[in-house]
Amino acid sequence: MYLCAMKKDQTTQPCSLSVTLSLEAYQALLDELAESRQKLLDGLQEIEQNRQEIEQNRQEIDRLRWHLASLGRLCWGRSSEKRRLPEDPSQLRICFEEVPLGVDEKVELRKEQKEKAKEEVYNRFRKRFKAKRVSHGRKPIPQGLARVKTVLEPEADLSGAVRMGEEITERYAVQPRRLYVEQLVRPRYKLPDGRIVIAPLPAMAHPRSNASESALTHIAVSKYADHLPLNRQIEIFSREGIHLSASTVSNWMTALGQCIEPVYNEMRETLKESRYVQADETPHKVLETDRRGSLHKGYMWAFYLPHCKSPYFEYHQGRGSSALSTLLSGKTTVVQSDGYSVYETFDKLKGKVHACCWAHARRKFVEAENYDPPSARHVLAEIAKLYAVEKEIREKGLKDAEVVALRQEKAYPVIRGLETWAVENLTKTPQGSPLDKAINYMYARFEQLSHYVNDAHIAIDNNAVERAIRPLTLNRKNCLFSGSHDAAHTAAIFFSLFGACRENNVDPSRWLMDCLDKIHTTDPKDYSRLLPHNWNK
């Protein structure tokens, strides 16, 4: 090895370094360099793997946090999806319920204290603050109720007393129901010409039974409108000395359903003639099944007719597209539903329109709020603007062209903005996450979600049909299942007709008694007069 030397007064020049290596040393140096390079590549690859593993773990942690928050909301949270509802101060907070991001607890506490201070007034006599009490007036008792008077005279000697007036205190009172036996007495006469005459029996709902129309009505309304199972009604009857078997009462309900089925069929024809229908389905378990030890999972298909505020239910053993045969065979051109794939049949048919529900799209983002609060809340705020437009329409009482004009002016730009946002965030969101599912659900249905803008008769959501399903849910919790597929069909008849009574503020007992009285003498062409929405007209 040789080093070159420089004088101090000479210009600095790079010195040359000469190294003499043998071929074996040079090859060893190349091998060492290649090995170092490979180790570097392996290290970089390991770092990338660790980074990917960390990202996967982060996504898994976010997913588990979302599941935990969803479970806490399911167990202890509010079921309502309304925003900014006031919390009940008497309820203890659950540790699983975390404080939403972006909310300062101290600031919120100071606001609550200020509001509480405003509600208090100073009482100078007691030298302390006293909360203001808001009195609630008692509602008057309806004048239509019968009055039973009980006169209470004073115990004092009333000799020579002059009555100055009276004070009346009214209270609600209940008299237990009175069961009685109705006897139809038909005298038999012999005419002078020798003929024997006797009055015919009136038309009966169940001729070969000892149950009158009033008894059948009471049992049917208690089961299908008040959700009181037959076994509990049988126990109530037994306490009053009337012992009935379950099979007998079940046969009564089947016969009653067959009696009013022509009215139910008339409702089906009304459905077929309807242009716009909201559709949904809900499970309905049946005891009759081919698999031993299990229940058959059938479905009640619900169709709501907004123009007459009437739900129509059909029982089907499955959830396939065959259940839509009633809609496809009629004049229905607009069907609004959730995102279930069966309803996509209407997207493929000429002259049919399939509208989707904004409430279902919104619900996906409510579920994803615990996963990605900023993104979910942005979408929820935009959807709230759509519902604000609908509120403005109701408050102003707008109709037809005015509704379409307002929706196109205020609602459609919001929908286009949501579509742009979905396109921008679709690839940025982790695949399979709750937010990703919500965005995909909304993005895939923007066309169906936009149909309501151009048609004043289409609602922004199909909440009406979901409200009509609530009685079935309550009945399912009490009655658990139907005994057979025929019994499930009978249940669909009562759910449809009693549901129409509920939607149109009709007393189901009065309607059913009147229907049983008229159905045998009414021309089949006039069965529409017996439908609940036409009954009071």
Strand-helix topology:
Elements: H1 23-76, H2 105-118, E1 120-123, E2 128-131, E3 188-190, E4 196-198, H3 213-224, H4 230-239, H5 246-273, E5 276-286, E6 296-305, E7 310-316, H6 325-328, E8 334-337, H7 345-348, E9 353-356, H8 358-367, H9 373-396, H10 400-426, H11 434-443, H12 446-449, H13 463-479, H14 485-503, H15 508-518, H16 532-535
Helix pairs in contact: 3-15, 5-14, 8-9, 8-11, 9-10, 10-11
Q: Describe it for me?
A:
The protein has 537 residues and is α/β, with parallel strands linked by helices. It has helices spanning 23-76, 105-118, 213-224, 230-239, 246-273, 325-328, 345-348, 358-367, 373-396, 400-426, 434-443, 446-449, 463-479, 485-503, 508-518, 532-535; strands at residues 120-123, 128-131, 188-190, 196-198, 276-286, 296-305, 310-316, 334-337, 353-356. It has a domain at 358-460. The chain is 47% helix and 9% strand. Strands 7-6-5-8-9 form a 5-stranded mixed sheet. Helix 5 crosses helix 14 (485-503), helix 8 (358-367) packs antiparallel against helix 9 (373-396) and helix 10 (400-426) packs across helix 11. The protein is elongated.
Number of helices: 16
Please state how the strands of the largest beta sheet are arranged side by side: 7-6-5-8-9
State the end-to-end CA separation. Answer: 117 Å
**Sheet bearing the most strands, described?**
5 strands, mixed
What is the helix/strand order? HHEEEEHHHEEEHEHEHHHHHHHHH
Poorly predicted runs of 5 or more residues? 1-11, 85-101
What's a quick, concise take on this entry?
The chain is of the alpha/beta class. The chain has 16 helices and 9 strands.
